[in-house]
Write a structure and sequence with these properties.
By secondary structure, the chain is of the alpha/beta class. The chain has 16 helices and 21 strands. It has 2 domains: 280 residues, Aldehyde Dehydrogenase, Chain A, domain 1, CATH 3.40.605.10; 192 residues, Aldehyde Dehydrogenase, Chain A, domain 2 (3-Layer(aba) Sandwich). The structure holds nicotinamide-adenine-dinucleotide.
Length: 493
């Protein structure tokens, strides 16, 4: 830890409705990835702090939160959403300080979706159907079976750094809507917006202990303390597949409910009959949005041979037009990677691609930026061709602004290459042949298939991956399935 920062730049824990330092007074540094400079100090929760947060959350389960009429609870969720929108600029600045993403992206995606998550789950719960069956019995009087939903309990919410507010509220909102209480462990890279949400919870009158935030790292830190705490009933986690494995093992002792949204190595398949310009624009977004740091990004692009050269040339032109730089400057399209360490990882893949024999169509290095951004964690958008399908750069998730483009001759070949992965989060298909689109959608091994679009979401639909990409589905009623326990009541008439 370096020298002290001012009080205003200290990010504290939020436990039982109060901001507080860690019990043992530990802090770690947070960096602004657009400048590479330290921007804050963050309180690092010890196991004792996590214990305090879980206990506060347990008390709140049976306190005013547990006894609050459902309608009132859902009104509070809508109020949280409104309040985030009223404090839009605070959330925007906090998210940009942590991630360096351009204001054009954060203002259209991260903050509005963070707010929308509370609105959507407020309405999903309001409209929730229930089941009731009349069961015949031998005496002719029958029995009535109906289902009651109870909250799971205290839910541990462990989040990544790429879309911090969006992905955290995507889990907190349905958890609270179902009557749970939460202990959130944001990524150590992006502690700000989860902390700011604590202020919002107090401002709209969410009872203390319902929403708690503990900062820190994974193994041997707050993440591990949360996953192993006996007072936590379920863990919802978004992050790397390897971390998912570690959490699964750690949570096994308590037989905790688990929901995992993990990594991907997603294919985009572009047929010669596609709307060419739409496919190029869509693939530019799917490869490079958020500097390639979206689990849904396409790192593998397959293009039907007759349009291969034209498509590669168009994607190269598009990639070279992407302007990296100051997140607040007009015309900045791309921010930095999240950290110096992550940049090192991405650049090591850029080097590996060369060693594996890639043709570097564009990029492959670090852009020259001046001013405040000179020390930021930027890399160039990068396109490769010519790699073997078994090359590590085609097999492993890089999580940077890069993709490999390979040609294909038949639908069957495209499908075989797309499915040759241990991941299975999403896939995109670009074609104007409707029959083929349906055929591909059914045959692709992924939790989500887009046709002629990418990243278009209706938040009521199921979201999740197959294989190494996840366990379970969240979204709409699917979230309710995870965040509640169903109880059958059978009454003999
Ligand atoms: P990560 O797995 O390194 O960290 C995620 C969170 O887990 C952090 O809060 C971290 O502190 C915590 N953590 C790490 N080890 C832990 C442990 N042993 N026990 C408990 N907690 C632990 O992931 P990241 O680098 O923050 O995010 C990038 C990854 O997330 C990529 O693989 C990406 O594909 C994936 N991701 C998936 C989705 C999805 O919806 N499927 C969405 C976004 C990101």
């Amino acid at each position: 830890m370096g020298s002290e920062v001012s009080d205003a730049r200290k990010i504290r824990l939020f436990i039982d409705g109060q901001f507080c330092d860690a019990a043992d007074g530990r802090w770690f540094d947070a960096f602004n990835p657009a400048t590479g400079q330290r921007c804050a100090q963050v309180a690092e929760a010890s196991a004792a702090d996590v214990d305090r947060a879980v206990n506060a959350a347990r008390r709140a389960l049976t306190g005013p939160w547990g006894t609050m009429p459902v309608g009132e609870r859902l009104d509070l969720l809508a109020a949280i959403s409104d309040r985030i929108m009223r404090r839009f600029d605070d959330f925007l600045d906090a998210e940009i300080m942590d991630t360096g993403k351009p204001v054009s992206l954060a203002s259209k995606l991260d903050v509005p979706r963070g707010a929308a998550n509370f609105k959507i789950f407020s309405s999903v719960l309001r409209d929730l159907p229930t089941e009731c069956f009349q069961t015949p019995t031998a005496d002719g009087r029958g029995a009535l079976n109906y289902a009651l939903r109870a909250p799971l309990g205290v839910v541990g919410v462990i989040c990544p750094w790429n879309l911090p507010l969006l992905l955290m509220t995507w889990k907190v909102a349905p958890a609270l809507a179902c009557g749970n209480t939460v202990v959130v462990k944001p990524s150590e890279e992006t502690p700000s917006t989860a902390t700011l949400l604590g202020e919002v919870m107090n401002e709209v009158g969410v009872p203390k202990g319902v929403y708690n935030v503990v900062h820190g790292f994974g193994p041997g830190s707050a993440g591990e303390a949360l996953t192993t705490h006996p007072g936590v009933s379920g863990i919802t986690f978004t992050g790397e597949s390897a971390t998912g494995k570690a959490i699964m093992k750690a949570a096994a002792d308590g037989i905790k409910h688990l929901s995992f949204e993990l990594g991907g190595k997603n294919p985009s398949i572009i047929f010669a009959d596609c709307d060419f310009d739409a496919a190029v624009a869509g693939t530019l977004r799917s490869a490079f949005m958020n500097c390639g740091q979206v689990c849904l990004c396409s790192e593998r692009v397959y293009v039907e041979r007759p349009i291969f050269d034209r498509f590669v040339a168009a994607l190269k032109e598009g990639a070279e037009a992407i302007v990296p730089g100051d997140p607040y400057a007009d015309g900045t399209h791309m921010g930095p990677l999240i950290s110096a360490q992550h940049r090192q990882k991405v650049l090591s893949y850029y080097e590996l691609a060369r060693q594996e024999g890639a043709n570097v169509v564009t990029g492959g290095g670090v852009p020259e930026l001046g001013g405040d951004q000179a020390e930021g964690f930027y890399v160039q958008p990068t396109i490769w061709t010519g790699l073997d399908e078994q090359a590590r750069c085609v097999k492993e998730e890089v999580f940077g602004p890069c993709c490999h483009i390979a040609p294909f001759d038949t639908e069957q070949e495209a499908l075989q290459m797309a499915n040759d992965t241990q991941y299975g989060l999403c896939a995109a298909v670009w074609t104007q042949n409707l029959t083929r689109a349906h055929r591909m959608a059914a045959a692709l091994e992924a939790g989500l298939v887009w046709v002629n679009t990418w990243f278009l979401r209706d938040l009521r639909t199921p979201f999740g991956g197959v294989g190494l990409s996840g366990v379970g589905r969240e979204g709409g009623v699917h979230s309710v399935e995870f965040y509640s326990e169903l109880k059958n009541v059978c009454i003999k008439l």
